[in-house]
Design a protein that fits this description.
Helix content: 25-40%
Largest sheet: 3 strands, antiparallel
Strand order of the largest sheet: 1-3-2
Strand content: 15-25%
Distance between the termini: 9 Å
Structural class: alpha+beta
Number of domains: 1
Shape: globular
Amino acid sequence: MSVYVGVSALYIYALPEEKLIEHYHTMGFSRLPEHQEKFVQRHVKPKYDEGCIFMYQVI
């Protein structure tokens, strides 16, 4: 995908359930450091994803 479209990262907003977060970790997704995660929650995350956890994967 990154070669043909120019995508360099994927991101998701995961439900805050530990089993789900661990599943995404096994798929290669990571969380941001706490201070960056709070910034995303305040400034970037859509209102309808409130309470979800921002996760990303560099491809």
